[in-house]
Amino acid sequence: MRQGTSLACLARVFLRLGTTAFGGPAAHIAMMEDEVVGRRGWLTHDQFLDYLGAANLIPGPNSTELVIHIGYAQAGWRGLLVAGASFILPAALIVTAIAVAYVEYGALPKVVGILYGIKPVVIAIVAQAIWRLGQSAVKTTGLALLGVAATVSAAAGMNEIAVLLAAGGICAIVQTGLHSQHRSMGALVATGAGISKGAAAAVSASFGLWPLFLVFAKIGAVLFGSGYVLIAFLRADLVERLGWLTEQQLLDAVAVGQITPGPVFTTATFVGYVLGGAAGAAVATVGIFLPAFVFVALSAAFVPRLRRSATAGAMLDGVNVASLALMVVAVWQLGRVALPDALTMGIAGLSVFALVRYRINSAWLIAAGGVIGWLSLAAQY
């Protein structure tokens, strides 16, 4: 790790990733690993894994928090803000544009063909990242067995944060025979719970920009896990409790978050625009992402210190292996849908070959996959 990367360089890298990173958090992490470890050498594999593990232990959008960690590691507090904002901004603008069309015409653009070609490329990108990161994370036979157990547990439906904490705790106990030192991370979770209670108490049933901000700040402060967990929070707050959205509007909002690049949490941007126009989109976006900046700012300085402690370092080793296990389950689940026929399997296979043999930038592969998918759909009509 080395500080000294220019803010302009950070902005360029993460603006590009925010514009091209399709496929959800696992794909975002894979593309970041290729960019900041493989191509630029900003972090080692071990450092990248440590920040990934730290991001997984705090609430909020994991891939965005990893971006914020990387920005802080490279350029301090200004880097933290620039990297995070650069990654979020392209997705927020794209989602806002779709929301404008949605409000105007009452339907979403048709993107089935483009996604058909992009998803196999995402599978290839994530699979390659898992392999490369696994070579650094799986240091011993014990960690390999722990990774298998974490994969099985996650596949069986065990909560993601429970898998991470269990793996970290097991490694810490093996290292010292004592419970590991989770106080710093625990304090962050407790802070998130406090924000949640305060926000819930302040929100009223009538719509307004301030209640909208509080709803999304609460969600950003307490939500662990994937975009599917986000759906549950949005439905409970916006459909059932407040009645601001219909079920169909919620499904459309979630679809937009899935089909656009960058953070899935920009679903909030879509909801905010539908409810309150451009101001609503801005308020909802700031609300859901602000806790991530706060949590990373509070925890970033602890990550290098954790590695210097034998007990905390063992905990991070366990969390890192479990993080990869969650990625394995995610790519397996996505693969069952993304590779339905010979064409998609061929796209995935060629993508793996291009990544391994020629180290082609994943953004180009995603663009090519989208074009192939669009042409394939067009040929059917």
Helix content: over 70%
First-last Cα distance: 52 Å
- Overall strand count: 0
Shape: globular
- What's the overall average pLDDT, rounded? 81
Q: Main β-sheet: number of strands, strand sense, barrel status?
A: none
What share of the residues does DSSP label as strand, in percent? under 5%
Helix-and-strand structural type: mainly alpha
Secondary-structure element pattern, one letter each: HHHHHHHHHHHHHHHH
The number of helical runs is 16
How large, in whole angstroms, is the Cα Rg? 20 Å
Q: Uncertain regions: pLDDT < 50 for 5+ in a row? A: 178-193, 195-204
What labels describe this entry?
single chain, mainly alpha, 16 helices, about 375 residues, about 80% helix
Can you walk through the features of this model?
Residues 178-193 and 195-204 have low confidence and may be disordered. It is built from 16 helices and no strands. The protein has helices spanning 7-20, 25-39, 45-56, 62-105, 112-137, 141-155, 160-176, 183-202, 209-222, 227-241, 247-259, 267-299, 302-308, 310-338, 342-358, 362-379. It has 381 residues and is an all-alpha fold. Helix 8 runs antiparallel to helix 12 and helix 10 packs antiparallel against helix 11 (247-259). The protein is globular and about 60 Å long.
Topology:
Blueprint lengths: L6 H14 L4 H15 L5 H12 L5 H44 L6 H26 L3 H15 L4 H17 L6 H20 L6 H14 L4 H15 L5 H13 L7 H33 L2 H7 L1 H29 L3 H17 L3 H18 L2
Tell me briefly what this model is:
The protein has helices at 7-20, 25-39, 45-56, 62-105, 112-137, 141-155, 160-176, 183-202, 209-222, 227-241, 247-259, 267-299, 302-308, 310-338, 342-358, 362-379.
